[in-house]
C-alpha cells in the first residue's frame, strides 16, 4: 500500500512567533505535530525539543530493537504502540528537565500528537489538545480526546455552541508535556485502509475551522495533500488566525 503525506505550519494572523513544530519522516512513516506553550521563545523551545526527542528515539529504536527504553512497556500495547508511547514520555522528560534547569524556560510545555504507520496498522499517540482525525469520502472522525478544561467540563455538563464559544477557560490545557516529570500518553490503533486520510493539527486549525469545513476542504483537494494543507491554513487565517496553524495529512493509496 502506498503512503503520501504533506505538512504545513504557519504563524497565523496575530502571533509574533510560531511556537508550533512539525516533523515528517517518510522513510520511517512517522509524523508529528507539537504546539508549544510558554512566554517569549519558551513554547518554541518546548515543541522543538519534544519533536526532536520523539523523532530520535523512534529512529534509534527502529535501528536497534535492543535499545534501552526510558519506561517499561505496557503489556496491553504492541511493539509499535509502545515505541510511540515511550518516545512521547521521553520527550516529556526532556522538556521538563530543560524547564527546570533554566529559569527562562520555567513553566514551558507543549502538546503533541504523533502518528506512525507500520505493517500492523496506524498508531496515534497524543498529549494535550492537538488532534488527530480520520477522513474518508463520507465522514470525518476525531480520533483523539482533548486534554483540556473545556473537554473535562463537557463530560459532565451540556453546553450550547454559543456557550462553548464563550467558555472562559477553553484554552486551558490539563495535560501537556513538561508539566510534570511523568505524563500519561493516550494511544490508539486503526487498521490501514486504502482511500483513508489521517489529519493531525494544532488547535490553531481545529479552533478556527469546523470539522465539517476541514472535511470539505480535504475532499476538494482531490488527493493533492499539499493543496489541502494550504487550503486548511488559509481558511484558519481567514477566520481570524488567532493562533499558529499547523496541519499534517497522511493518505493511504492502493499503489
Mean pLDDT figure:
90
The beta-strand count equals: 10
What proportion strand?
25-35%
Q: Strand pairing plus helix content: what structural class?
A: alpha+beta
Poorly predicted sequence stretches spanning 5 or more consecutive residues: none
Helix content: 25-40%
User: Mind telling me the C-alpha Rg?
Assistant: 17 Å
Shape by Cα distribution? globular
| End-to-end distance | 5 Å
Total helix count? 7
Strand order of the largest sheet: 1-10-9-6-7
Oligomer: single chain
How would you sum up the major sheet?
5 strands, antiparallel
What string, H for helix and E for strand, traces the elements in order? EEEHHEEEEHHEEHHHE
Task: Name the descriptors.
five-stranded antiparallel beta sheet; 7 helices; alpha+beta; 255 residues
What this model shows, in words?
This protein has 255 residues and is α+β, with helices and mostly antiparallel strands. It has helices at residues 42-63, 79-101, 149-154, 161-165, 203-206, 211-220, 225-238; strands spanning 2-10, 20-25, 30-37, 109-118, 121-127, 131-135, 140-142, 186-190, 197-201, 245-253. The strands form two sheets. It has a five-stranded antiparallel sheet. Helix 6 (211-220) runs antiparallel to helix 7.
Amino acid at each position: 500500500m502506498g503512503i503520501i503525506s504533506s505538512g504545513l505550519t504557519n504563524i497565523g494572523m496575530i502571533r509574533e512567533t510560531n511556537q508550533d513544530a512539525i516533523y515528517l519522516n517518510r522513510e520511517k512513516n512517522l509524523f508529528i505535530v507539537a504546539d508549544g506553550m510558554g512566554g517569549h521563545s519558551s513554547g518554541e523551545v518546548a515543541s522543538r525539543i519534544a519533536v526532536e526527542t520523539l523523532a530520535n528515539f523512534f529512529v534509534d529504536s527502529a535501528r536497534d530493537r535492543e535499545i534501552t527504553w526510558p519506561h517499561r512497556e505496557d503489556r496491553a500495547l504492541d511493539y509499535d504502540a509502545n515505541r510511540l508511547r515511550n518516545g512521547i514520555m521521553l520527550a516529556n522528560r526532556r522538556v521538563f528537565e530543560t524547564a527546570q534547569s533554566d529559569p527562562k524556560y520555567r513553566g514551558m510545555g507543549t502538546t503533541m500528537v504523533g502518528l506512525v504507520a507500520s505493517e500492523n496498522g496506524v498508531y496515534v499517540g497524543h498529549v494535550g489538545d492537538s488532534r488527530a482525525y480520520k477522513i474518508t469520502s463520507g465522514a470525518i472522525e476525531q480520533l483523539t480526546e482533548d486534554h483540556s478544561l473545556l473537554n473535562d467540563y463537557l463530560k459532565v455538563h451540556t453546553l450550547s455552541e454559543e456557550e462553548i464559544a464563550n467558555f472562559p477557560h477553553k484554552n486551558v490545557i490539563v495535560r501537556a508535556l513538561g508539566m510534570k516529570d511523568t505524563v500519561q500518553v493516550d494511544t490508539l490503533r486503526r487498521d490501514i485502509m486504502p482511500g483513508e486520510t489521517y489529519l493531525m493539527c494544532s488547535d490553531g486549525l481545529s479552533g478556527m475551522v469546523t470539522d465539517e469545513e476541514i472535511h470539505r476542504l480535504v475532499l476538494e483537494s482531490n488527493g493533492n495533500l499539499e493543496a489541502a494543507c494550504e487550503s486548511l491554513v488559509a481558511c484558519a487565517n481567514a477566520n481570524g488566525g488567532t493562533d499558529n496553524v499547523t496541519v499534517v495529512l497522511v493518505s493511504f493509496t492502493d499503489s
